[in-house]
Amino acid sequence: MQTKQSNPKVRRAPVEAGATVMMGMDVHAEQITICRRIEGQLSQPAQRMSWEGAIEWIRRHVQAGAKVYSCYEAGPCGYGLHRQLAALGVTDYVVAPERLDRSGSRVKTDHRDAEQLCSRLNQYLGGDQHAFSVVRVPTPEEEQWRALCRHRDRLVRERQRCVVRACGLMLAQGVHAQKGWWHAGDWEEIRPTLAPWLCEQIEQWRTDALRLEEQARAVTKRIVGRSKTGPLIKGFGALTNATLESEIMDWGRFSGRRKAASFSGLCPSEHSTNRHRRQGSITRHGNPRVRHQLVEATWRLMCWQPHYKPLVKVRTAKGSRARRRAVVAAARHLMVDLWRIKSGQCTAEQLGLVLAE
Q1: Within 13 Å, how many C-alpha atoms sit on residue 31's CB side?
Q2: What angle do helix axes 257-264 and 288-304 make, rounded to 10 degrees?
């Protein structure tokens, strides 16, 4: 069933030179639904266009002398549309995805989403900074660097899936494989104990695991070779540092320690009312890759930075649950300290961190 698209030449209210035009866009791979609002007027009904038709329609607004503002949610279509609009002279905002149906009507359509985005854009331009959260758009070079680091993570996860699937097949036949069984020496020992039909399937998973491991090792060398040079904190490898840099891109983007900690998603949730205050588990409202790297680095700092002050509660915690909670709190503190170091507010030595030789 083909989707009927609106004609981009449909008659609308004329746009005068110098007018402010706001556009909320719901972007998909094959179409863009746009809701337009001219300053001083109500939002007009949203219309559906092709990508080429939408770009041409917006270009005519700019050529008419209008000051055009637009926004759309970050998603699988990336930042190509943002760069095209910026080249036309449009002030475009890429915003963080969130639930647009605040009234809870449980009705979601492209037209409604475009209208909600247009309404929030009007509020944002009017001074309401909480209307939506603006996403920092990376440069093409930053995006390529980040994609390379994420590609390595995907290779490592796929390799682990191959190993786990093979282990599951062997376990179902009563064979308990040891750690690292799929490497050459260990595989030659366990191979004679397997039935021919099982050995054939395990060999296929093992071949995929070895191939993915070799690819991940090659990508790791590229990442480490291209990572920024400079003194590293003891316990932080070049790979961890490169991954954090690729995800955060610019440490100066945070105006304070609270925003730096919030970006990691390691802040506790809260439900407070009247005189009662209750904090719960972490919000996880941030970059999951940054959160993972920080928690892993905190565990390593237990060995390499034993005198780091936030780790005191980790060492004194009793029980595995209390220990994990203390590690999360220390990881949040580490994020703030890294922001202080990267932004030049203080040195690592002043925060009790030892640099690697």
Answers
A1: 16
A2: 100
